[in-house]
Task: structure prediction
Amino acid sequence: MATKRKPRLAVWKFASCDGCQLSLLDCEDELLAVTGQVEIAYFLEASRAVLEGPYDVSLVEGSITTPGDAERIREIREASKFLVAIGACATAGGIQALRNFADVREFTAAVYAHPEYIDTLKRSSPIAEHVFVDFELRGCPINKYQLVEVISAYLHGRKPNIPTYSVCMECKLRGAPCVMVAAGIACLGPVTQAGCQALCPAYGRGCFGCYGPMETPNTAALTAWWRDQLGMAPAAIQRALRTYNAGSEAFRKESEAYEHAHD
Amino acid sequence: MMQTALRTLQRPSTPVYGSSACKPYRCRVTRRVQENDDTFTVELTPVSARQHGAFTPGQFNMLYIFGLGEIPISISGDPADPDRLVHTTRAVGAVTRRMATLHEGDVIGVRGPFGTHWPLEDLKGKDIVIVAGGIGLAPLRPALYQLVANRGDYERVVLLYGARTPEDMLYRAELERWRARFDLEVYVTVDRATGDWHGNVGLVTALIPRAPFEPRNAAALLCGPEVMMRYAVQALQKRGVGAAQTWLSLERNMKCGMAMCGHCQFGPHIVCRDGPVFRMDRIQRFFGRWEV
Amino acid sequence: MTEHEPHDRLYVLDRTDLQQLFDALRTRGYTVIAPQIENNVIIYGAVDRVEELPIGWTDVQAGGSYRLARRGDDALFGYTVGPHSWKRFLSPPLRMLWRARKTADGFEFIDDGSPPPRYALVGVRACELAAIQRLDDIYTRGAVIDDDYQARRGAAFIVAVNCGQAGATCFCASLGTGPSVGPGYDLALTELMEGEHRFVVAVGSERGAEVLAELPHRAASEGEIELAEAIVAQAASQMGRTLETAGLQELLYRNVEHPYWDAVAERCLTCGNCTLVCPTCFCFTIEDTTDLTGQIAERWRRTDSCFSTAFSFISSGSIRTSAKARYRQWLTHKLAGWQDQFGNIGCVGCGRCITWCPVGIDLTAEVAALRAEDVGQPPAEPILEMA
Result:
């Protein structure tokens, strides 16, 4: 058989912590298999060798926060056949989307000696607000097995097995006891998408919502229970919703419902 | 009470005992026909002589593409020729899109046949009215083959078939052949006429009031989009064809085909076991009910 | 499966000799699974020693709440049921069904499966035994049999325990599934705390009798038998919840369009917890995968829930997109459809779905609310509604 050209994979970074790219490097055993199947054409975190586009698969980490970002993501989209947004920054704006709830100019004035040099957008926004995204892989950071699954699914033309149901599904499947029911700990698991194998609840912590809203998140019912049964203060509820996926619609709206509520 | 070792979801490295029922048998593609833009027919023959594709009209198979997935597809071939397994489907998901690219000689997996059938044996001496919409003709074609092969056992046989456009119609050559027969009444309609179409334009349900059959002695077999079947049932009832004389084929999510996985739940029914072919009066409490 | 013929005679096994039961089971090649405490919850897992049981602990349950508490005695089985159920061992949540290799001729199956483990399930409550029998209906009594389940089930040695107390979310008495264990066990224990700590033992099978024969035991006295019966009767009187089953099936069917379902949907998180803790929920999905090279394919079976939207996905999209339709599906299938499909109510009254719902949605209260607002007559059939 004639050697088929391996699909070219590129990894791009926008406003982010690099944690999701590290997940790809963290694949170790799997990474060898991945490099056997794809040609890594652009991945500065791993290699300085850069191959020109077009790319078959682009993994995009980070959110769009500057006018330059907004321009660059369009170029990447044009050079990519299949574009996957990876991580909470790329899919929801990330922790930096907290700026969306305030005035970014006040921040820059407070932080930088010369804020006039800072060219930044008012909002931190996910990739899908700017270009068409073929698949959004959630997580802060993403789960490396899910990443391999998405790449493998792309290579073989199948739908990735990435469920959009709640963290509770994974929590119960691994046999971990519910921290909300058994310990009265506020947990975002019931409204958060699975993917982490319920890491925090399994260690007795409430879910922080790293994977963003699940398919049909009833955030109002959950936070009402926190408030009425667990005695949680509105400000604390708002803080719980405003982390890595603060910019996601479901978490943002619910957090705004607690905006002006006081104890 | 300390936190003991945290259990993780165990991912076994070897398969479970048995599960032969979940193992597809291999079939070779012997023919592939593009029916229209997105719809195609594959003909399969079991690789092993020990396997055969015997089925009754209305049943379905689970078709498996290596590593990609498995989907339920009704059988649309001739029940008298079980070594030629025929399936017609639209390329809509990952599995069917790959199926659309199959070539002669390719091998795929098959499990089945599953489910209930059109009760043709019990309908001898009756007028048979077949109402099909779009790809809904596929699971009814085996019934037509069987009716034609045993034509003397039935009174009138009427086929009412509707498609979106003339180009969307399935089995056009066959429809022509059936139309040419004096012992079949074939009426075809399209939602939208294109090209040199001079036939009926309109919904298939509009053909029901004028179709030549004796309502009291009729049996209606329906397959198509649920909304089309709802209107067809209603039009048939207006002509006096009751729910106990009407059978229809339902679509639900199916994973196992063995009445175990629960995905095809429909009110009191398990569609892969109690269906896909149901007599209307057995399901009319729930048929067409929102999100049941 | 072995014949489970109940023996009339009741015996007594001293608490101090219970370890010998565990040892006898292990000697026979069983992995003993029993209640134990993990992360402040009583779960089921492998144990070697009786001391690993939740000795002296009980549970306090309510809608959306579960806490452990000290009992004040050294009872071994002084609690009700926790978040785990035995289906975890008889029908594990994630299983590889087969593995295949791509060949010139299509594919071939490789790595044939090995026989499943042999479990002795110790501490199976009446409702749980009934739940296992519900699973038997689905996995072993249809046209096709789940080989793996049947092998696990056939090998399982069941040591049942009669409940000495009922929890606030228990309602097995309403369903006739408890608190006294019905047939189907190998040995059944009733824990007596009065006087000497001991167990009244009923023998339910030949192999149960064989195991008991290896242990120090004696015939139970009239007094001990009466005491054991009184203990179970007391549990029956303590049920925290009730579920009226008369006309339940029709109640649900005729109220399919009731506005009540909208009210539940406002509270329901569609998280799926109720289905995952339920000892009878049996749904699973099939996942087909390949390795990165595409040369090896696997088929996996994973526990699924009717609360996910993918569950009802067909070519035109998901059938049950609304929370209302998904909750209605779960409750109606459990209490009504199940009767049509398998001849029984799918609920055994264990109360897990009430306790482990993160927002305390209570199946018994929901049914009672529906009953109070019963429309009384079936809604117009959809076909007629169109006219």
Q: What stands out?
A: The radius of gyration of chain B is 21 Å. The longest strand of chain B covers residues 25-34. Residues 129 and 220 of chain B are 5 Å apart (CA to CA).
